């Protein structure tokens, strides 16, 4: 070990108590699933963490019935002031149990503790705190004098930000007076089940929040259930499309937050060091398993060499390994399946003629890992420039003029996010206007806040989550 | 077609009696008018064509269909738009999107107001058309036209306000400037209801373009007549060509190509009365995640104040972040 190497600094796992098996959370009780069981795996080791109940169509039906009952009998009749207090209470308990949630999230998902501790969990608490305050102020939100809840919301969330996506879904739904049935991703159910315990600690009325675990079939049964008034989904565009077909012709209100292939555009006047940090955040945050990741770097031709040299140097300092180590920058890929997809797409990148580079990086033997990678000599037609990789893989393209940058950036069916790096204010504003994306980060990237609406253009989905705009998804307006 | 041919032939025979005939503008339309011996002038009929990219082409398919009054009286032959016409219209709408969405809200408002002015100037013509197409009383037809004009005025005033009421400066917990504001969705395919013929068209079209979208408007069956006259109003209101494209004919035929078109960003199914068909169009629209405004399950009352729902239906929200610092 050299003098500037880091000693291991693992966060203690003692704070979490992972049970051998978990049941469904329906009507305020943990009840056995009737659809069988599956295992949740620690992606950093490949070892099974717990047996998780798989919700059958009948279980989904029970959960929807419990949510309906809670809606009719309790939640829709409760004054907003009281709903607000429940949500504030939940926000507080999340803060109190923040470290436990962070550690459990890192174990189940594989993301570094630095992120779960400093980003995911604080944002989860903030999201509940923000929407808590909306519960008794809905008539001031601009949707008319008496905006009404929709009823029962079916919510299906992904594995990349398990608890944060839960918060994005449950907090506004409850604030607006809906009850929910939420299905966490099959590879990351543990924090959602711990959240169920938090609901019990908060004395949230039974059935207001129901959690059904399972895979695609469970989710399909949930969104297709006739007793559901609202469907909210975050995940792949392919599944989003399927859900849109399923709810077509019904009265269900639908919001979708889907895939992305964001351009991160760096102009020749950008401060190189800040831009490099921004690029690192844009594609290596959460191992690049982020729908709004800046997976296409568009660099102005005149600074390509300088920028890429600096980027490669910085990538050489990234520390990959144990997600629970406080010095870890890059954790594990969430599943063997996701690792296979990243591996397949990067192989296609090489086969199509792009040039691959990763810093020297030793990967752990067990678990699912992928070294931070960049591709240069990428053409707009390559699969790695068009398809969402959802991994720590950056495709580098170049441009000469702002017009060319816009044309390349918008040349995708996606439209979730984009980044711009330049010191010129008028150029930032003109680029921000012309980029067809729901979120534009200028001289920053991957920032999130409960007051800031998030969501896509085009095939990245529709509807917004966060802030005032996020209420619309859960109100009958 | 035979009707048109006859009219042409008769017109050719007319010149001898022309000076006197031209002087009479109140002549009744009918068999007597066609007699070369009559001093009464033969009216000049309008050819109802499509409106695509600011031009008035016939359907590329060469097809037309008869528009009749509720009592079956022949009114006109309208162009029966084809799938190819629909694709042409989408192309023109896409081409016009950058300019129209990039125009100032003030300019868009003035153009929409100009449309109201032009429509007002042709009130009598629209009233007659609506009356014959819908079989309405003179008073009811006039009321519908007035409501349609007023709807343009309502939306003209919204162009520079919708952005403000849908925008927000977001108080994020950090040193960032963070603003959300609405932007138009893109190319919207609008299926207008057949009744009320004019007010229905205007009620779906005006909000879509007021918000900065460009449109392909399908005017069903007999709504073709006021639709094409509306196109003439649009063509003389400084509205750039391609911002609105009007296809007359059958929603049953045009629904699929528009719902499946990958360069259409949104659908308004207001005029699709068949629930099963509306569902299948919504399913097709899922292929590229089009925004879909479903038809209302209860019969819509288009005379009611429209609110902002149709205006916001085809808006996206863009949020921009920038660090705050020295």
TrEMBL record, chain A:
SUPFAM superfamilies linked: ALDH-like (SSF53720)
Name the active site residues: 257
Q: Does the keyword Oxidoreductase apply?
A: yes
Q: Which InterPro entries match?
A: Ald_DH/histidinol_DH, Ald_DH_C, Ald_DH_CS_CYS, Ald_DH_CS_GLU, Ald_DH_N, Aldehyde_DH_dom
Keywords of the record, alphabetical order, are: Oxidoreductase
Query: Residue ranges of the Aldehyde dehydrogenase domain?
Result: 31-476
Q: Name one Pfam family in it.
A: Aldedh
Family statement drawn from the similarity comment of this UniProt entry: Belongs to the aldehyde dehydrogenase family.
Recorded protein name is Aldehyde dehydrogenase family protein
Origin organism of this chain?
Actinospica acidithermotolerans
According to the entry, what is the taxonomic lineage of the organism?
Answer: Bacteria, Bacillati, Actinomycetota, Actinomycetes, Catenulisporales
Automatic annotation (TrEMBL), chain B:
Using the record's annotation, list all stretches that form the Aldehyde dehydrogenase domain. Answer: 60-292
Highest taxon, organism lineage? Bacteria
Instruction: State the UniProt keywords alphabetically.
Output: Oxidoreductase
Residue stretches of biased makeup (Low complexity): 13-29
Renumbered to this chain, region (Disordered) spans: 1-37
Q: Does the keyword Oxidoreductase apply?
A: yes
Offer an example of a GO molecular function term for this protein: oxidoreductase activity
Q: Does the keyword Oxidoreductase apply?
A: yes
- A Pfam family this chain is assigned to: Aldedh
Q: Which PANTHER family match?
A: ALDEHYDE DEHYDROGENASE-RELATED
- What is the name of the protein in this document? Aldehyde dehydrogenase family protein
Source organism phylogeny: Bacteria, Bacillati, Actinomycetota, Actinomycetes, Catenulisporales
